[in-house]
Amino acid sequence: MAKALCETNLAGCKPIARGKVRDIYDLGDALLIVATDRISAFDWVNPVGIPDKGKILTQMSLHWFKETSDICRDHLISSELSDFPPEFQAAPEQFEHRSMLVHKCEMFPVEFVIRGYLAGSGWKEYREHGTVCGIRLPEGLQESSKLEEPIFTPATKATDGHDINIPPEEAARIIGKEWAEAAAAKGIALYMHAREAAESKGILLCDTKFEFGLHNGELMLADEILTPDSSRYWPLDQYEPGRSQPSYDKQFVRDWLETTGWDKNSPPPPLPDEIVAKTREKYVEAYRKLTGRNDF
Fold it and tell me: Rounded to the nearest 5 degrees, what angle is found at the Cα of 268, between the Cα atoms of 55 and 15?
């Protein structure tokens, strides 16, 4: 198994931002977004990475950008190393297969979460109030129930990095009703396309998060798309409403951390080799099933 790349380093060129997973370089009229192998859980980045995770996320995003190009324009310019500046080309071990050259966008400060099943924070709110992001749902739904129609349940980021669910009306207030409705419609169309494609491969797409922005006044899909980090994917043949589902995302890491006694308010314990290997297997399995490729 390859060594995890948890941070990029380029002499004389520092990223303008390091997120939980991505390093971002400003190239003037464009950005270079690099998906590292960092993995976060409970809003903490683990000191141990998952080998090839960043490459898998990038290649899966590229797969879905191509699949959905007729639904919404995206920010991708190129993912070919030969199109990057020379200093990045000289470090293929850091940038090849895990980087995207993209248009700069004026990003909306709202995450466009589309839910087709009742899980996670949506299930928690439904149990307490019968709603998700203030949207009233039918009575009698169970955990993991399929919704009659997918719903747009926006979220914002607090200063500490936590997602905060908000009603669609609040999203409209923040970015404007016209853009909020346009992006929500694109999000639902993207979700429906991906859900149908995934189901044909034996995978259920429970929910997913899209990020949109404006480029030259045009709505544009940005960041990652339909990866195991931004989506809940479930094995179709194991689906059973009324309980939580096995998944292809980083739930495996969360479950292990829950057994350690970690307080979630201090740096997390390093992932052991066994958990790293099994987590990588989850990402690889999802990638292979959804893209039909075996390059990992």
Answer: 45
Range 107-250: architecture per CATH: 2-Layer Sandwich (3.30)
How far apart CA 285 and CA 113 sit, in angstroms, is: 24
Q: What is the pTM of this model?
A: 0.95
Q: Which run of H or E residues covers position 67?
A: helix 53-67
Task: Enter the tokens of residue 189.
Answer: 């169309």
User: Which helix or strand (DSSP H or E) is residue 179 part of?
Assistant: helix 177-199
Tell me the pLDDT tens digit for each residue of 157-199: 765 667 899 999 999 999 999 999 999 999 999 999 999 999 9
* 168 vs 72: CA distance, rounded Å: 20
User: Given the structure tokens 């990866």, which residue do they identify?
Assistant: 227
- Best CA proximity match to 153, nearest among 139, 129, 177, 169: 169
> Could you give the CA distance from residue 10 to residue 14 in angstroms, rounded to a whole number?
7
